[in-house]
Hints:
The structure holds 2 protein chains of 2 kinds. Chain A is an all-alpha fold. The radius of gyration of chain A is 23 Å and the shape is globular. In chain A, 71% of the residues lie in helices and 0% in strands. Chain A has 13 helices and no strands. Chain A has helices spanning 2-5, 8-14, 17-34, 36-39, 81-117, 119-134, 137-151, 157-172, 174-188, 192-199, 204-240, 252-260, 269-296. In chain A, helix 5 (81-117) runs antiparallel to helix 11 and helix 12 packs across helix 13. In chain A, 43% of the residues are buried. By secondary structure, chain B is an alpha+beta fold. Chain B contains 15 helices and 19 strands. In chain B, the strands form 5 sheets. In chain B, strands 1, 8, 9, 10, 11, 12, 13, 16 and 17 form a 9-stranded mixed β-sheet that branches. A 4-stranded antiparallel β-sheet of chain B has the order 4-5-7-6, covered by helices on one side. In chain B, helix 7 runs antiparallel to helix 10 (338-347). The longest helix of chain B has 19 residues, at 2-20. The chains are: A mainly alpha, B alpha+beta. The A-B interface holds A 46-48, 50, 52-53, 55-56, 76-78, 154, 157-158, 242, 246-248, 260-265, 267 and B 230-232, 235-236, 239, 250, 252-253, 255-256, 299, 302-303, 305-307, 357, 362, 369-370, 373-374, 376-381, 383, 386-390.
Amino acid sequence: MHWFLQSDFFYSFRNAPVAVASFFVFAVIILAAVFANFIAPNNPFDPASLNLMNGFTPPLQSNEFTGDVFLLGADDQGRDLFSTILYGLRISLFVGIMAVMLAMVMGVVLGLIAGYLGGWLDTFIMRFADIQMTFPSILVAMLIYGVAKGVLPPDLRYEMSIAVLIISIGLSEWVPFARTVRGLTLVEKEKEYITAAKMIGLRKSQIMSRHILPNVLGPVLVIATITFALAIIAEATLSFLGVGVPTTKPSLGTLIRIGQDFLFSGEWWILLFPALTLLALALSINLFGDWLRDTLNPKLK
Amino acid sequence: MLKHFLVSAAILSVSVSAVSAETIRWARAGDSITMDPHAQNEGPTHTLSHQIYDSLLQRDMAGSIIPSLATEWSALPDNPSVWRFKLRQGVTFHDGATFDSEDVVFSLGRARADGSEMKELLSSVKDVRAVDAHTVDIETNGANPLLVNNLTNMFIMDKGWSEANNVMTPHDVAKGETNYATMNTNGTGAFMLVSRAVDEKTVLKANPNYWGKDIYPNEVSEIIYTPIQSSATRVAALLSGEVDIIQDVPVQDLGRVESSAGLKLATAAQNRVIFLGVDTVNGPTSDLRVRQAMNIAINRDSIKKVVMRGQSDPTGVIMPPFVNGWTDKLNEYPKYDVKIAKDLMAAAGYSDGFDIVLNCPNDRYVNDEAICQAVVGMMAQLGINVTLDAKPKAQHFPIAKGGESDFYMLGWGVPTFDSHYIFNFLVHTQTEDRGSWNPTGFSNADVDAMIVSLESETDLAKRDETIAKIWAEVQKAQMYLPIHNQVLNWGMRDNIEFDVQPEDQPHFQFLKFN
């Protein structure tokens, strides 16, 4: 800990107000999501706790039938928006983290293989990546999502829809990881310590995982933070388009989709608060990621 | 010179009147499922077909029956089981073929063939005969005084065209079949199909040889029909002037449309009831007490108040008030009472509830998915853990109809304005010819016999008595949980003069601009 507080890294963090602020916002959102069941006044995912008559209650006003008051108002089904946002955040963050993990593992492994082994495998992997890059990732995600929905059994719909979201977003975001890792691997593998490792007879897999991987991880972390924000937005987009999680267990994107229907009629809070939360989340991750990239990139110092 | 002048003046006047005709851009939530006029008995599908195809007789914008391809009809005085139809002369199909009695015989036969969804409407028909080129007799099993009511959506196709394109029978939508008629049409109607992209855009243009040219206003020269599922997008399209008329104004935006300059709102009670169907054979819902509990646990008043914003009439029977057989007593809905419902659940041995999937459309009825979502919450009060599965209607209907679902939403309009239509589709045991929309497993031989007897009962008082008896059985069995009757709201530009049709079917030859 002492070592960390004395490091260059922490020093530059402390002197970057944008980084501190974005990290703070991000931390608050994460904690709110993790401890949602303690913070949220009620559980919006438990349909038995809902009272339809609370529908469309404006923020901080009491409902004319039930007398209930909600901090951020209630949505069309009488769900407390504040609680629903907290629970929805959990889904958004979970899908985001898992999708990034999947994309990262895939991208790093394929990038290492392509970069270190080279040859036709390299050509194959990278041309495939090029082709995928020509499609917008949201389109790829929708395609995978559509196929998966058709193939998978209709039972277990909720659990499935989360898993399918993770897989479709993960598979659509692996390319930047693979490209970066491949590029760095091409540089690293010509260095002397790799030659030395080859000389002592290490296997290729050992060289890749023990020697090259640790040296290419810095940029991977930067890409991961930015992809994390992208993945959260992708989940929101898919849910907004109605192909994501079901409306009975809404994520932020689903809430925004519901809220959009009530913009013309003046029930602005159903859209505004989930949208602001999504904005704060994506912006804080992006700003932190930007700072991280600048800090970890020695050329910019 | 003068001659030339007169000719060009005549051309000019023709082109002037052509200019006064206008394009109408029309939107609603969902698209027609197929252009094959006998393959789906569904509102939006019939609505689009009505622009292109004609039936023997039709309902006008006020809902009364008027002549269409038939000009006169009556039961034969010496034999009340035979209805004689005099056909309109000089009518041609869009491809130029002449319309005659052969086409009527063929079309009514096609509507009774395998794959047709119109069968139940003709279940009393024994034979259809051409008397001469412009006279057709329809013979029923026993006298059926209400036969004509069943013909308003029974479209007439050209026999020659159907033979040439191998569409002699309708395609079975539930099985995923298609045929040439799914995307191509040849009717006698006011409009001809120009292009169609399913769920995107359908373009129709006025039929220059339409038989009703001098009968109806016919001010519309072109129809551009776009299904817009998202309610916010649909109303935005109307507000921005991108479309001229929308059929399903979202209930939350009624005030907005009404107060917008240049737009107006037309409202009427709709001949359509929304309800939930429940499996009566398998699973926990096979217990009557469970179904009763579910029925009592639906808070219809709060659905009306919050989900529908007052734009619905809660009901206790799956029958709109337009229908013969409707009574105030039947329409009464049970008082919402969770305690009694819980007691019923406990009595049935399900005090801990059970799991069930609710299948629901999301582009068919007003706020269909939101209603289902509200029901999920209400069922949770009884411990019933409902998983909501909302889908576009093209996928929902085969699930609901095929009996794959234990719990599903359906809406039912009654084009014949008679209870028999409801019974024949929704109450009769599911057989080859009847009960096609009764996947609940409800089956009662006595009820079936009474339903069939309605078709040949000429004593109307006695007939009404039988109808009341059947309703009593339906209410007792409670395989359907009624929710409400819909209220129709059409939004349109204020230079359009168009009545709201109680079946939610705009017939654009009636539309006038002012």
